[in-house]
Amino acid sequence: MAKEFSKHFDKNQEKEIYQSWEQAGFFNPDNLPDQDKRKSSFVMMLPPPNITGSLHMGHALNATCQDILVRHKRMDGYLALWVPGMDHAGIATQNVVEKKLAKEGKNRHDLGREKFVKEIWEWKEEYGQIIPNQLKTLGASCDWTRQSFTMDENYQKAVSNAFLAYQKEGFIYQGERLINWCPRCQTALSDIELEHQEEDSFLWHIKYQAKSQKSKFKNNESGYIIVATTRPETMLGDTAVAVNPRDKRYKDLIGKTVVLPLVNREIPIVADEAVDMEFGTGAVKITPAHDPLDFEIGQRQKLDTIKVINEFGKIIAPKVYAGLKIDEAREKIVKDLDQLGLLVKKESHKHNVALCYRCNSKAESLISKQWFVKMKPLAEKAIEAVEKGEIQFAPVRFKKIFLDWMHNVKDWCISRQIWWGHQLPVFVKQEKVKSQNSKIKIKESFYYGDNPPKGYIQSTDVLDTWFSSALWPFAALGWTGDKNQDKKNKDLVNFYPTTSLFTAKDILYLWVARMIFSGYFFMDKKPFSKVYIHPTVLNKEGKRMSKSLGTGVDPMDLWEKYGADATRFGLALKSGLRQQVKFSEEDYVAGRNFVTKIWNATRFIDMNLNGKVKLLSVGEIKKLKLDKDQKETLSLLFATANNVKNNINTYRFDLAINELYEFFWHHFCDKTIEENKGKMKTGDIITLQFLTFVLTNSLKMLHPFMPFVTEAAFKELTIKIDGETQPLIISSWPKF
RNA sequence: GCGCGCGUGGCUCAAUGGUAGAGCGCUACAUUCACAUUGUAGAGGUUACAAGUUCAAGUCUUGUCGCGCGCACCA
Fold this sequence. Notes:
alpha/beta; four-stranded antiparallel sheet; Rossmann fold; 24 helices; about 20% strand; RNA-binding; elongated; Isoleucyl-tRNA Synthetase, domain 2; about 725 residues
């Protein structure tokens, strides 16, 4: 039955359309028609959003680009699979739930670990589906039947087995190292979990004096050396002063000692190449326990380490300063030095401070016992693969960025002192034993695995959240690390390695690099062939969007105002291979207008069909006697189809949608329909067939970008032409 | 300090080395016509600046300036 086109298309129809796709099961490649004819699988893994969040512009752009590609591949005859899921986001989630507790006047220690973790699970049940639902609203054609979560039972097994596999290979070790510590989150952080921010501060010049007048330095009657520092409070833990061995000023002082002010400890002056003669006074105070470079120098020079700052960011000793926060201690120490006449100079100085990427607190360097993964052997394979081009980056410049990092990668600190996450499958037994000099020592023995012998207690640490994300391309397909179980997993056989990975550049090291070496280590195959790094969306002032600063744009607001297709249109226009793009609302207005145009053009042609027309194949349309302009339109359609396909495959979604817009609106609507209006109204069959052909193929090409309006328009149209036909989502991409 | 990206009409962006384009905005006109979420026409650009390569440069090279980003042990 011919049904009349409704006058408008608006976003109220979107939900119904989405449900019809999902219910038909088209997001699941197993349900796609023509299984035998389909070329091969095309697989993408959605970067799992944190359960804490709601969709931001970055997610929206990322998801839109992925959906364009997946929908295109599905139409182009692939077994297309897009696997969604969520990340438990260890520290971030723990922080959010702690904040919620704080509002109720509680903290996690009041609850205890077990109850607190339960609290997080409940929180996840309540808020964890926000982003998936928002993705559905935008039309993301993910296979929700394959959705997974990094804390699912299977996934936990995978993580545990992954750790054990590294351990077996000798890649895991525990060590007392200088690590990054967040005093607020109360956990260790890896080097790449820090953000650096420039801060206006001072460079204080402090006099370190020789022990007595007698021991005045030779050739240096002054009897002191001046060090320059940005962190005077760490001087309490100084165990040396270092100078460059080539520095003539201090040549005669090497090997001498000075007395550490305020503490009155005698410390040596040592020579080390790492000291920059140009900076400050050329003499550096060395605090191996609280500074990465000092730690390194301390190792080389065999210096003691004296811990003076604790896990809460407070001074430990000496008594005068004990309990003070870092800033307070700094102020007091500077004052005390000044009173002693030891503060020589204070000059303005800009320097970088390290901040925790989850809470923005200043991170401290502390010596702490943590678990590490040896990176060298893992990196080698990843480097080789990328150099050979087995994995390719778009834009290509990221290849070099990746390789530079990989070549200089340091061991990965994987233990975190939080409660939410995958507990290490490490069990410890402590025994008191007598050592040779008959002192009582504590001997630790470890058990790695699932069923520890009696007396062993599991480590309370959890793994870095990125440890589990690193396994995503296979663990989200159900890999567990248990060979018998994995053998039976068809998804691993059919869909691993995946094809493309789309992500933002800020997690290139945190996530992408780690998936690459993990893929090779656990699966002996690359996790994906192509990595597309989409642009960063800046606000219209060209600044980073920030929720806390209120400078962000909520994609769901755009959806409210303009609908999903218009939102996707605006996002697609701002994709491509650029590093950053500026948000502009006009793009979404243009998108909304385009939705209306598509709807109205279809409705107009449909109005004139009167059930007389069949959809013609390419072969048939070519045989029609078309006029010159019609022929030109046809060849422009063919050219557009080629260009759009090429542009999609090279991640130029911006060019693709732009060309479609030009073709459909300014060529097809403004010229072709106008020129053929007369003949169409008289019911000229050839003209109607021609217009219908160009229209339906345009709708097909537009579908990956604007799936809702095209699906709805196509449905109305084909009801008129052929009765019920297949939906656009599984129609085939135009081939000419 | 090293590295990367960007700089094109008022705004957001296109343009295999070959006549600089689009959208939005602006101006004028049109419209009982599928669409005022429309159409037609128009104004508006020494492509940041300078030098170089070339028959030809927005595009390639070098330098300068401006914006953004990444890396780094300047305490």
